[in-house]
Amino acid sequence: MATLNHTGVSHTVFYLLGIPGLEDQHMWISIPFFISYVIALLGNSFLIFVILSRHSLHEPMYLFLCMLSGTDIVLSTCTVPQALAIFWFNAGEIFLDRCITQLYFIHSTYISESGILLVMAFDCYIAICYPLRYTTILTNSLIGKIGLSVILRGYGTIFPIIFLLKRLTFCRNNILPHTGCEHMGLARYSCDDIHVNIWYGLFVLMSTVVLDVVLIFISYMLILRAVFHIPSKDAVQKALNTCGSHVCVIILFYGPGFFSVLSGRFGHHILPYIHVLLSNVCILAAPMLNPIVYGIKTKQIRDQVANMLFAKVV
């Protein structure tokens, strides 16, 4: 595959390799990708349907969960179909505009999901620390405004990256060793100064995802302090169960990303395909497992699903 490599020529077409070093295993690798994507689509779509169709689930916690499922669908759809096209048809060719569009939606949706997890932590905090004021604080109007703010934050903070990338001249290698496009992975192929991209990318990371993690941690410190002041053991157990599913989802979402960042920063001896696989796990793990976690650990959802599936039998 020929590549242009002389100054003055800006690439408009790039080639995604998929999993570098494991090209001969792409067909086998595609199997868990495909299964994960199907589970993510079906699980999150069914969860949204259950929540929206059951009036008893029209509560803040479940409405936020509905938002989470929606972002999971978008996040996995931004990445997996492209990866499967590479694995199955060797269709790794991607135009620059499409590449920028893909990374825009991936990064924006990831930040939006991080924001929703923060809002769900706030929901747990209100439910445990101010149970009598729960419904008066989290009104439908406020939930709608919070959801809109989270989406606008995600898509707004990433929007300048489009212009930061469009200004660059891509005169180096046009082969990307990945299954999809991402900001710095693409910017590094530019012959121009990318310090603005680096600093803005760091600013976005610190002001969104890192800030969300810090605020979630503070929320749970306050929750734990309130829980251990509850005299009733049953009430303590109920309070911990309320947040149990959310904690699992937080680990699934931030955990792979944490290890991916560590491997990218300190794991220079790690093979390239490990970095790419970790990056894909960051995108796939949460969308696939979130509906399973909430379906298993949330009694109200289990009951509503059982009623829907077995109503006719009864």
Automatic annotation (TrEMBL):
Q: Which UniProt keywords apply?
A: Membrane, Olfaction, Sensory transduction, Transducer, Transmembrane, Transmembrane helix
Q: How does it sit in the membrane?
A: Multi-pass membrane protein
Read off the Gene3D superfamilies from this record: Rhodopsin 7-helix transmembrane proteins (1.20.1070.10)
Q: Where do transmembrane segments lie in this chain? A: 27-50, 62-89, 109-130, 142-165, 198-227, 239-261, 273-294
Annotated InterPro entries: GPCR_Rhodpsn, GPCR_Rhodpsn_7TM, Olfact_rcpt, OR51/52/56-like
Which residues does the UniProt record annotate as the domain G-protein coupled receptors family 1 profile? 43-294
- Report the domain of life of the source organism: Eukaryota
A Gene Ontology MF term for this entry? olfactory receptor activity
Coarse class of the primary localization is: membrane
Compartments annotated for it: namely: Membrane
**Recorded GO CC terms:** plasma membrane
What the entry lists under Pfam families is as follows:
7tm_4
Chain's role: Odorant receptor.
> What protein name does the entry list?
Olfactory receptor 52B4-like
Q: Specify the species.
A: Chrysochloris asiatica (Cape golden mole)
